[in-house]
Amino acid sequence: MKPRQKCRLARWAQQTHGIGRRRSARLLNLAWSTLQYRSRKDPQEALRRRLRELASTHVAMDIGG
């Protein structure tokens, strides 16, 4: 299971069972600092949307002989 998935599960456990961050991390064998991590990068959603749009209109050419 990836760390991101474990973080989601840990947050679910916190909300559902009313346990603390450290305990939920310990139960999932997850470093407590991983739960504390907050990404600082700009999501650049407009750029991602445009790239998906361009990729969907790209037609692959069959180069066969």
Molecular structure report:
Helix 1 crosses helix 2. This protein is elongated. The N and C termini lie far apart (44 Å). The chain has a domain at 1-38. 62% of the residues lie in helices and 0% in strands. It has helices at 3-17, 21-27, 32-36, 45-57. The chain has 65 residues and is mainly alpha-helical.
List keywords for this structure.
single chain, 65 residues, mainly alpha
Helix content: 55-70%
How far is it from the N-terminal to the C-terminal residue, by CA?
44 Å
> What's the helix count?
4
Please state roughly what percent of the residues sit in beta strands, choosing from under 5%, 5-15%, 15-25%, 25-35%, 35-45% or over 45%: under 5%
- Low-pLDDT ranges: none
Radius of gyration: 20 Å
Shape: elongated
Number of strands: 0
Task: Give the helix/strand layout.
Blueprint: H1 3-17, H2 21-27, H3 32-36, H4 45-57
Helix pairs in contact: 1-2
Brief write-up:
By secondary structure, the protein is mainly alpha-helical. The chain has helices spanning 3-17, 21-27, 32-36, 45-57.
